[in-house]
Amino acid sequence: MLTAGLLLVGLPPVSSQAQPAAPGSSILTLDESGHLKIIPEERSAIDGDHAADSSGRLIRTRGPWGNLEGAFVFIEAPQSIVDAYPIPDRQTRWAFPLDERPRLQQQLEDVGLDPRLVQSLLSSDRLRQGRNHLYLLPTVDEVVSIDRDTRSRLCALLAEFPTNPQQQNPLIITGRSVQTFFRTSPLRSELVDMIDRLSYSRGSALVFSDLSILVGMARTDAEVKLIAKSMTRARAAMLHLVVEPTTRIQDVLAYWTLGSGFRTKDVEPILQSIAATDGIDSLPIGHLLPPVPRKLLYTFASPDYAKYGSLPDCHWTTLNFFRTEPQAYYLDADIAINGILTEHERVEGEPSYGDVLFFRRVSTGLSIHSCIYLAGGFVFTKNGLNMVSPWTIMPLNDVKDIYLTDDARMEILRRKNLPDE
User: Fold this and answer.
1) Which long-range contacts (CB under 8 A, 24 or more apart) does 282-286 make?
2) Which of 138, 160, 235, 369 has a 20 to 30 Å separation from 285 between CA atoms?
């Protein structure tokens, strides 16, 4: 499955030009004590999936789930978590196993690199050999000179080998614009421009994997740390259920209780209270979710999970969604995947609240990712097996951009039985 290394999170492609701006967005961060810190932004871009209405809200979607409104925010890991990850030095390295040496020149030329550059990189005075790997050491100018299509093919080749973590786990940029993605970031404009210039497409996603070049551009130690923190950046949706005089509370309640009364005692009182209270007309969506996702939303995995020998991933998140307390044994990916496939059955049509969206390889059938569908085209997800991938709400289209490739498909899985309360 895809994860984020220290080049971390995010997504989508094509144009790197800023999109039309609209009011209503913010940057969301965590302070060192783990509390949410929200900084409003006057203007923020929107993508084509969600249009701002006259009230200035960025997201508005209506259906059997009720009326959801909200804004896109940006979330970054606290510095204490970022500091736990090693930061590469300024030298870009492309690593290949020694047994690739006989075909390496042809491979590099096949992805579109200039034959003269390939010959220079493979010359004896520039090529470095370790115990098990060859290391190509391109200059900054050589890296920058590569066009976007060639960079996409080159990074796909590099990502085949675990010794290239920046290409295996790139920063994924959501919102279809690098400039918009970093609009509220304190990064210098020169750094953002370099990210824009070196970003490339991976499937339907816009990604960036040249952290070493940014490190080389840093002016101070503090800026190196700021760059690393910015590489944990992810766009998330902060949603509220709007309760209007015309809202049919029982219909909305039916959607959020799986049509069977599941957790009615937890959801109905707060909905009825808001409907009956003047001056209060909305409810953060987290209050509609079960205890585990409500606690985890917009947070990062604690180092305490290390005592179990693994960190929570997407499948752990999926199987613990309806639980009151998370089950640690789902940290075993094989057990978690088996649990998903055993407890659910495939359905056709449109997903509904609580359905599992299961992504797998077409060629092998192996799982890539899973997440929980909420409402209005939004999902609850954790995109990566590490501490710098937050639990968050994202548009399903963003998740598809990350995980759907020519060799992947998405299945809708529904629980065979109601979860325990």
Assistant:
1) 282/69, 282/240, 282/241, 282/242, 282/243, 283/240, 283/241, 283/243, 284/238, 284/239, 284/240, 284/241, 285/68, 285/70, 285/239, 285/240, 285/241, 285/374, 285/393
2) 369
List 257's β-bridge partners, or say none. Answer: none
| Ordered DSSP codes for 88-145 | --SS--EEEEGGGHHHHHHHHHHTT--HHHHHHHTSTTT-EE-SSEEEE---HHHHHT
CA angle 322, 324, 330 (to 5 degrees): 70
> What local confidence, expressed as pLDDT, does residue 22 receive?
31
Beta bridge partners of 25: 41
Count other C-beta atoms under 10 Å from residue 406's C-beta.
7
The pair phi, psi for residue 247, each rounded to 5°, is -65, 130
pLDDT at 45 over 80: no
Angle, vertex CA 75, rays to CA 167 and CA 300, nearest 5: 80
Query: What is the per-residue pLDDT across 100-117, written as a single tens digit (0 to 9) for each?
Result: 999 999 999 999 999 999
For the chain, helix, strand, coil in percent to 5 are 35, 25, 40
Concatenating the DSSP letter of every residue in 344-371 gives: EEEE-S---TT-EEEEEETTT--EEEEE
